[in-house]
């Protein structure tokens, strides 16, 4: 799919569709009025008859006469023109894409002009969101066997005012790269665990770095982990025949001495719970326990594709959590790379065990900031549902930047407290800490655990358990929070 920005409509062509916003008003306005004049009043009639009311997310596909420049016109409801929210806009974009999936449209002209201004967002932001959604919508896990439902759309032109063209073109490129990164993350997340192993992810990292002078991939295997004293990580991977891997992808797009931003992802490619084994119902979805790692791959792919002028290091803690003859037992005590000892009370609290050693390893990069993302706790779903990620950290400025990026991208997060009061729940009679903190505040105590290994740099933790994948009929990885990570980089480091 080719996506570009222009200031004038494309010439008449077969299977060409115009996409325009309508509001909850009795008459078409601005761009909709121009299209109405060109289509013999079909938009005005649709509004008059109540076929479309302008409700956010409502769509109506109109077929025009041969005399019209466009063979079809897609009307997309935006709500009240005076108060279109970012959420309304994203809802409208999603609805438009869903409608277009079932058409034979080959070319789109999308009117993004003053009549679709969204709250305090710029026209460039609208272009970025639309380009990201369109590029991301091309993903189809079955693509090797079936054609993507958006494959018929070959060309999309975003129509903006002349003064907006330059900024919108740059934003469109950012959006397309972000969408491509989302596809990468979803593709890895949806792979079955017999294919997507720690070794598979390591190979993907090496492939990403191949023939790229600014990209370097380093793989730390279990023998080297043992030499480094990564006893916490090894306590998780030792029960599986699949060797655990710490995967490091360094992208050096900035100045040589510029401190990198580090993105760390939990990469438990399958989580049985270990000896503290999970119930069998729904366990197939534990292949998604590496969606944090998948989002790191997605964000790194987008950074490299855009050639961002910033140093970004992606780190993936990849392991399988299996019950075997060498698996860690509840009650075992292990020593982390930091030297702190951990009493393993529950082997199903394994994500924090691999991440804590990774957080210590990251100190060697002297990072400007570290953001980790992990499908870490079911407690986060209880607290926040499936609407947003849970955010905790040791730096208020970094937390505020991620919240802002979440609001701008639609990958929202909500900050939970990380008070010292919660730390006592991790007390152990036999080690420096336990790996779980009891029934209460499970998301927070998990972050408290990680915070003990992240004192050397500004750090934020995103618990993405509620947003990383969908269950049921639409089961699959979502690619979150790639959009949030990229927005964070665009806003604060580019």
Categorize the overall geometry.
Answer: elongated
Main beta sheet, described?
Answer: 8 strands, mixed
Broad structural category: alpha/beta
Helix content: 25-40%
CATH superfamily (homologous) name of the largest domain: Zn peptidases
Q: Report how far apart the termini are.
A: 26 Å
Mean pLDDT: 93
Low-confidence stretches: none
Please give the CATH class of the largest domain: Alpha Beta
Total number of domains: 2
Radius of gyration over C-alpha positions, nearest whole angstrom: 24 Å
What oligomeric state is this?
Answer: single chain
What does this structure look like?
With 494 residues, the chain is of the alpha/beta class. The chain has 2 domains: 175 residues, 3-Layer(aba) Sandwich (Leucine Aminopeptidase, subunit E, domain 1); 303 residues, Aminopeptidase (3-Layer(aba) Sandwich). It has 14 helices and 19 strands. Strands 7-8-10-9-13-17-14-15 form an 8-stranded mixed sheet, sandwiched between helices. Strands 1-6-5-2-4-3 form a 6-stranded mixed sheet, with helices on both faces. Helix 4 links the parallel strand 5 and strand 6. Helix 9 crosses helix 14. The radius of gyration is 24 Å and the shape is elongated. The two termini are 26 Å apart. The mean pLDDT is 93.
